[in-house]
Design goal:
By secondary structure, this protein is mainly α. The chain has two domains: 14-80; 103-155. The chain contains five helices and no strands.
Length: 156
């Protein structure tokens, strides 16, 4: 049986080939047992046994490559993440401050806030006008709606 194809480049450590071969053998045993049971035979036809052997080899190689890539990705992420918590929090606070400054500098801010307040007042009045809610209950319902929207935004 040929050696597994090297999943990571021209250099392969001997123990790596052994690990792939062990995984391949386990996959092949499982698939062979499954297909024998499915086909209700004691011995699989050569074409099916060969296909299982080939698929097991490919699966083991791909799993090995995926494992190496996942480890490399985890290692690479450490180079892009600030390790200093103060720096991380400071960066987030600066971004928040810059965002607030941008909104506050908008010429439309006062008009947007006034329109939003007007709509909330109309909604509260509509709730009161139904006769089913007091002024305080209508206010609490509006407040709960605002808090719910804020919570959903925070979780998405």
């Amino acid at each position: 049986m040929p050696n597994p194809v090297n999943p990571i480049g021209p250099v392969v450590l001997p123990h790596h080939n052994v690990a792939i071969k062990e995984i391949q053998d386990k996959i092949e045993l499982k698939l062979t047992a499954d297909y024998k049971a499915r086909l209700n035979v004691a011995v699989l036809p050569d074409n099916i046994a060969g296909a299982i052997r080939s698929a097991s080899q490919v699966a083991a190689q791909r799993a090995s490559r995926a494992n190496f890539e996942a480890e490399a990705f985890r290692a690479a992420k450490t180079f892009f993440q600030p390790t200093d918590v103060k720096t991380l929090i400071g960066n987030k606070l600066k971004q928040a401050k810059d965002g607030v400054a941008l909104v506050a500098a908008s010429a439309d801010l006062a008009a947007i806030l006034a329109e939003n307040a007007s709509m909330l007042a109309k909604k509260r009045k509509a709730l009161e006008d139904t006769g089913a809610f007091s002024k305080e209950e209508a206010f609490q319902m509006i407040l709960a709606e605002i808090e719910g929207k804020a919570a959903r935004r925070g979780n998405s």
